[in-house]
Design goal:
Elements lengths: L1 H22 L5 H8 L3 H29 L1 H25 L2 H20 L2 H11 L3 H32 L3 H20 L12 H46 L5 H26 L3 H22 L5 H28 L3 H32 L2 H22 L11 H6 L15 H6 L5
Main location: membrane
Pfam family, one: MFS_1
InterPro entries: MFS (IPR011701), MFS_dom (IPR020846), MFS_Efflux_Transporters (IPR050189), MFS_trans_sf (IPR036259)
Length: about 425
């Protein structure tokens, strides 16, 4: 029991620190832009470049984690985030204007490369450490809660640090990553592999087979994860901007206002993870309900610009996203065999980073050319697309009756089906002995 708690603390520290290292910059982006004399679009690149390099490297990190082990990838990647954070901090401290800007960008690129092998690898590692589906789903919810708690804490902490010194949020990032690195080395003990890792050519064939068989619901989950992150980071960027420009809120007070919708996201993520268990139909319908809440709240928000309406309806929509995220994590983790789990979940994480990278720049362009109504109309539209994907593309099998242990054992690797005809599992095709 004590070891399980240690595992969860170390696992949860990774998304917590990675989220702080990224989201903590959002409340101070306008101030960083003024200090460096760059445009709003340029300063949004501090978030985007981090995410773009992670998008490109996450699939590689996923394969390496399947090939050499999860911890063997996480540790060096956390070291890379420490180095990248240090470069950004030193550049902001010692340089000025464009020289400082491009040095910070270079450090953010290294941080993104490190992030590619950190949080995305946590999701399959939870599936490896906790074979029982109820326990795995609950702990995935806990890990997602660490992630969302980081989003809650980041605007408050970022604003407080930025009020002391504009580049202080950049300076504390390497220290946060170092804490996570120490916890992972000290507390996580990965069980020894029972099977020899497969070679790259066979691995690629297996992944192609998985995508061919399960592509319909996998691609839908990839898209839903990206949409959730796009909405969160896009609206946070917008809210951070208008709180200063329109409502003249700065510093810690601004951070507290930004944290309100994220608290809702965090609580709903925790509750969603506890409720879903191993029930895949429940995962679908709770996730669908969350996405519907997101869509409706943002559709209404397009008609109101008062600060209380913006924060209140964003809080409601954030709760919807919080319900959806642990459902998406659990569906994808327990729907894939362990041998391909790292790579498939890394593709999912890549799409989440796509949403992170697109949110701030797209919103900066929309608010410059259109306005409030079109912005939230667009957000409601993408939320509606996500809800339809959950409704139409994700088709779980009927859950087993409670207490049927023999059925649970025989269906431990229960797979999801989709609307087209079923095909034999990839694991059977992979191990089938050819006729002589």
């Amino acid at each position: 029991m004590q070891q399980n708690k240690g595992n969860l603390v170390a696992l949860g520290s990774i998304p917590l620190m990675m989220t702080l290292g990224n989201s903590m910059l959002i409340p101070v982006l306008p101030e960083i832009g003024r200090k460096l004399h760059v445009s709003s679009f340029q300063i949004s690149m501090l978030i985007t470049v981090y995410a773009v390099v992670a998008i490109l490297l996450i699939p590689i990190a996923g394969y390496l984690s399947d090939r050499f082990g999860r911890k063997a990838v996480i540790v060096p990647c956390l070291i890379l985030t420490v180095i990248g954070g240090g470069i950004s901090a030193v550049g902001a401290w010692l340089l000025h204007d464009l020289a400082a800007y491009w040095t910070i960008i270079a450090g953010r690129l290294l941080q993104g490369a490190g992030a590619a092998g950190a949080f995305p690898i946590v999701i399959p590692l939870v599936g490896d450490l906790y074979e029982n589906e109820d326990e795995a789903s609950k702990n995935l919810g806990v890990v997602e809660t660490y992630n969302t708690f980081g989003k809650v804490l980041s605007p408050i902490l970022g604003a407080a640090l930025g009020a002391v010194l504009w580049f202080l949020p950049l300076a504390v990032i390497p220290g946060l990553c170092l804490i996570s690195l120490i916890l992972v080395i000290w507390l996580i003990h990965v069980p020894k592999r029972k099977n020899q890792p497969i070679m790259f050519r066979e691995f690629v064939g297996n992944v192609k087979q998985v995508l061919a068989e399960k592509g319909r619901w996998l691609y839908a989950i990839f898209a839903m994860g990206g949409i959730c992150m796009f909405v969160i980071f896009g609206v946070l960027f917008y809210l951070s901007d208008i709180l200063e420009s329109r409502y003249h809120l700065h510093g810690v007070w601004k951070g507290f206002v930004l944290a309100i919708p994220l608290i809702s996201l965090c609580l709903c993520s925790y509750l969603g993870g506890k409720v879903i268990g191993k029930h895949k139909k429940r995962m679908k319908w709770i996730g669908f309900a969350g996405l519907v809440i997101l869509t409706i709240s943002f559709a209404i928000l397009g008609f109101f610009q008062h600060i209380y309406a913006v924060v209140g309806l964003f809080t409601l929509g954030g709760g919807g996203i919080g319900l959806a995220l642990p459902c998406l994590d659990a569906l994808i983790t327990k729907g894939i065999e362990k041998e391909e789990r790292g790579t498939i979940t890394s593709l999912y994480s890549s799409m989440r980073f796509v949403g992170v990278s697109l949110g701030p720049p797209v919103v900066s362009l929309l608010i410059g050319r259109s306005g409030h109504s079109l912005l939230f109309g667009a957000m409601a539209a993408v939320g509606g697309i996500a809800a339809l994907l959950m409704l139409l593309a994700v088709k779980p099998k009927q859950d087993e009756p409670a207490g049927d242990k023999s059925s649970d054992r025989s269906n431990k690797r229960e797979k999801m089906t989709y609307m087209s005809r079923e095909k034999p599992p990839a694991s059977k095709l992979r191990h089938k002995t050819p006729a002589k």
